[in-house]
Amino acid sequence: MRREAAEAITWLWRRHGLREVTAAVMVLNLLGGAFLIPLIVLVGERGGDARVTGTVLAGLGIGGLTGALLSGRISRLLPPGRLLLAVVTVFGAALAATALPWGAWWPMIPLMFITLSTPSLNVVMDVVVTRMVPEAMLGRMGAVLSMGGMALKPLGPVLGGALAAALGGAAALIVLGGLLGLTAAVAALSPQLRHFTGEASTAGDDTSTDDKAPRTLA
């Protein structure tokens, strides 16, 4: 089991582009999992009660449902690497926008934009994995990518709670938005990520001889 896991990790490390995308997704999950506590604090600071807080958080569901319906169209607009950069940028800008002083209800609007684009990214990344990963390694690679993408997510609420306690809801959201913007800027410096298409032909180094050829979707 250790040998097979090591093979999958080695395969991922040698795939320039997919490796950088995985790292960016890890940071996105960390910072994306940190904003709920500061958001709840922000609504409370502006006088919102439990009803207002629940309505504001409903913006996440509305955006997610709309994003799921539009995911096919959105995913065709940009290649995976640039789509990831766009999602991180929109996420960061929307988080910072929730801190604008326009009342307790206002954060509901930028929250819709946060979840509007993320379903498209999820769909695209599933297709990328299916295209690039050899069939014999699909299960292992799915586990490695899931573990890598979610490894930092449990720390998100800890980070968000600490920032909210130290800075208050609005300032914490601005900091998180700024960190996401910085993540997008750093990721954009990587030509492998910017030009990443997820095609099997650009998968990187040759796979080991005991693996089947990568699958390509029609």
Question: Which SSEs are present, and which pair or pack?
Answer:
Layout: H1 2-13, H2 18-32, H3 36-45, H4 50-75, H5 80-97, H6 108-132, H7 138-150, H8 155-167, H9 169-188, H10 191-194
Number of H- or I-type helical stretches: 10
Structural class: mainly alpha
What is the number of E strands?
A: 0
Low-confidence stretches: 201-218
Mean pLDDT: 82
What's the assembly state of these chains?
single chain
In whole angstroms, how far apart are the ends? 33 Å
Biggest beta sheet attributes: none
- Kindly provide the radius of gyration, computed on alpha-carbon positions and rounded to a whole number of angstroms: 19 Å
Task: Describe this structure as you would to a colleague.
The protein has 218 residues and is mainly alpha-helical. It has helices at residues 2-13, 18-32, 36-45, 50-75, 80-97, 108-132, 138-150, 155-167, 169-188, 191-194. It has 10 helices and no strands. The protein is elongated and about 55 Å long. The protein starts with a helix and ends in a 24-residue tail after the last helix.
Attribute tags:
single chain, 218 residues, mainly alpha, 10 helices
Quick take:
By secondary structure, this protein is mainly alpha-helical. It is built from 10 helices and no strands.
